[in-house]
Amino acid sequence: MMEIEMSWAPTQPCFVGSDVWSPPQPGYLKLNIDASVFPSSNHIGIGAAIRDDKGSFLGALAISVEGSFSPFVAECLALREGLRFAKEIECVDIVVETDAINVISAIEDNRELSTEGPILEDVKQLFAQVRSIGIHHIRRSANHVAHLLARFGFNSKCTNI
C-alpha cells in the first residue's frame, strides 16, 4: 500500500515499483505530471492528469510553454502547472506522481538561488494551499497518460483542458 503524507514536508522520495498506473487510496486524487522537451525547439509541452480512487478522470491538461528549457526545468514547470490546475478544480487531498526524481530531490534541497528556484518556491506555496499532499517518483511506464498529454501539448502549441 502506498504511503500518503498528511502534510507536505521534506522526506525521502518514494519509488513506486509498479509498471502501470495505480489509483490512490480512497478519498485522495492522483495528479500525474510530465514534460516533453526537444532540444531544437523553442517550446515545451506539459501534461497533467487528475484521477480519483476509481481511476476516473476529473481533468486533464496539455499545454505548450514558449522558451528553451532543460528537461529538468521543464519537469519543474510541469509540476507547478499541474498543481495550479489541481487547485483550479479544487483538489484538496492529492498524491502527485512524476517520473523525474531529480525534481523531488530539488524540492527537498531548497535550491532558492538556482534557475529553477523561483519555480520550486511556487510549488511549495501551492503545496501549502491543499489539505494534504504526497509526492512520489514512479516509473515512466506508469506515467504514460501524462507523457501523452505532454506530447500533445508540445505538438498543439496551445492550452487544452
UniProtKB/TrEMBL annotation:
Q: Which Gene3D superfamilies match?
A: Ribonuclease H-like superfamily/Ribonuclease H (3.30.420.10)
Enumerate the spans annotated as RNase H type-1 domain. Answer: 32-152
A Pfam family cross-referenced in the UniProt record is RVT_3
**What highest taxon heads this organism's lineage?**
Eukaryota
**Which InterPro entries does its entry note?**
RNase_H-like_dom_plant (IPR044730), RNase_H-like_EbsB-rel (IPR052929), RNaseH-like_sf (IPR012337), RNaseH_domain (IPR002156), RNaseH_sf (IPR036397)
Q: Which CDD domains match?
A: RNase_H_like
Q: Name one GO molecular function term.
A: nucleic acid binding
Q: Know the name of this protein?
A: RNase H type-1 domain-containing protein
